[in-house]
Hints:
- By secondary structure, the chain is α+β, with helices and mostly antiparallel strands.
- Helix content is 30%, strand content 24%.
- The protein has helices at 21-29, 76-93, 112-128, 178-188, 195-205, 211-216, 231-242, 264-273, 289-296, and strands spanning 38-40, 48-49, 56-65, 97-107, 132-140, 144-153, 169-173, 223-226, 245-249, 280-284, 303-310, 314-319, 322-324.
- A hairpin with a 7-residue loop joins strand 1 and strand 2 (48-49).
- Helix 2 (76-93) packs parallel to helix 3 (112-128).
- The two termini are 39 Å apart.
Amino acid sequence: MRCSTMPRPDCVPVTEGRPSEDQLIGHWFRRSPPRPDVALGIGDDAALLSLPPGSELACAVDTLVEGTHFLPASPARSLGHRCLAVNLSDLAAMAATPAWALLSLSLEAPEPAWLDGFAEGLFALARRFEVVLVGGDTVAGPRAVSLTLLGHVPPGQAIRRSGARPGDGIWVTGWPGDAVAGRLLLAAGGAPAVPAQLSQVARFEYPEPRCAEGVTLRGIASAMLDLSDGLATDLARLLSASGAGAEVELDALPRSGGLALLPAEQALAHALYGGDDYELCFTVPPRHERALAGVSAGWGCPVTRIGRVTAAPGITWLRQGEPVPPPAGERFSHF
């Protein structure tokens, strides 16, 4: 069997039949370009990495399990992309720069065609963000992927969940709710009928991590996290960490063209509770709003102010400035 898609001098040929663990690693995953901060990568018991001088190490890990996080029929390329993208989103939320990854892969059987797609999805995204795969593990078992991402941030410049203060504005990138709409379209087994639905499927299968946006928020945002479990759930976590509450204007929530095709209450439930968005939710003091306008002008996604931080705990939902009951909807869960 030839080396898949990218000719590499270190590619390990795979003969017919079930590949060994060494063949699997060498053929599909030893393809990262060199980085000067990697003293030793794949092939030993542990990687040796050099942290940039004067930096703090940022670490994140996520696990994707078949049947919980992705459908059995999900494209392998999508899964390779997503396992890195969700971790890139975590580092983006800390305003950290990604650098190195460790991959743990559980497979019932190492199918070459599936591995080709998975590796292509993984490394296409890794190249965009200059991430190097430096190690990991493979094991026979139910299909699951766990990826650990390491990066760095200047001391004291990581943006935590705990810095929001009363009066800060609450902002969100992109279009929360699109990913769950795409996931439900796939689960229903129907083909997307219009371009807006195709976009929602892509938002689920190929989420776009907001790494550049997160880094530019250093010194501007007072608190930040990424939206993995739904805007309502994750915003509540940020507020709890900050010891604060919020007023959120429901009519200000951004709606994509795809969500506009749904009944209003269903679209609202998707935007608040859907999960798998991997957008950024952050707070900005009024004195930094001009700086936010300056940096966000160069972003590849919209950014929307949806409310403000308050001293009183909890979230007050508003319509045209008036309090309303909490919107109905089933909250996303990874369990």
